[in-house]
Write a structure and sequence with these properties.
232 residues, two-stranded antiparallel sheet, 13% strand, alpha+beta, globular
């Protein structure tokens, strides 16, 4: 799995490290404590402690100790029917801007950053309402809008933080084309050039095939919701 390229490898890695290190030390921490610990390595890792759908809380404490994740109570059938199609762009090469440094730069210099942050509370409410209603279309719409807003803020940084490659734009265009043909597909992206597409199990093969045909997409993976961190 490509690392340092914008596919959240730090999330799974630090979540695994949090569990392994604490178990090696003879500790048996609950999910909240593991989430808090994993967050020290990567904000995304706080979410990876749990399986299924998870909410990350911003917290209010200056030290960030209450910025942890908690599971969302979602219908098991809805979660089981979700698929994420990962379209890898450019062979998974390491990205030119590290996520943490890039976000700090974006917050300090982008005129669009405050607007993106201001959208978050309403987007979270919309996402949670969509999950409660098992409404994939509504969840997909807010997911795509939030991801594009983040990248818009990054692109507007001075100097710019531009992760996208030509294949990124082509993949995003293909997602819109799929929706135009009646296929349920909504794009999301982390801090990198790769495009991930939220869809249903029934549409996953069609979406994967369409993205694999996009020039510049070097690999396609079909992923489903997995379990939380566990010791084997």
């Amino acid at each position: 799995f490509p690392t340092a390229s914008g596919l959240a490898s730090s999330a799974s890695g630090f979540a695994a490290l949090a569990l392994a290190a604490t178990r090696a030390a003879g500790l048996d921490l609950d999910g909240a404590a593991l989430s808090r610990l994993a967050r020290l390595g990567s904000g995304s890792a706080a979410r990876s402690i749990y399986g299924g759908l998870v909410r990350m809380h911003a917290g209010a404490r200056p030290d960030g100790a209450d910025a942890i994740a908690t599971p969302i109570d979602a219908a098991p059938a809805f979660v089981a029917g979700l698929r994420m199609i990962v379209a890898e762009v450019g062979g998974g090469a390491p990205k030119t801007h590290g996520s943490r440094d890039a976000m700090e730069h974006c917050a300090a210099t982008s005129p669009l950053y405050p607007g993106w942050v201001a959208c978050v509370p309403a987007d979270l409410r919309a996402a949670e309402a969509a999950i409660a209603a098992a409404d994939l279309e509504a969840l997909g719409a807010v997911t795509e809008a939030s991801a594009l807003a983040m990248h818009a803020a990054a692109i507007a940084s001075r100097p710019t933080v531009l992760y996208w490659q030509p294949a990124t734009l082509a993949a995003l265009a293909e997602v819109r084309a799929l929706r135009g043909r009646g296929v349920g597909a909504w794009a999301t992206m982390d801090a990198g050039p790769h495009v991930k597409v939220l869809t249903s199990a029934g549409d996953a093969e069609v979406v994967a095939a369409a993205l694999a045909a996009v020039p510049g997409v070097t690999a396609v993976t079909v992923a489903a919701s997995g379990p939380g961190v566990e010791q084997t």
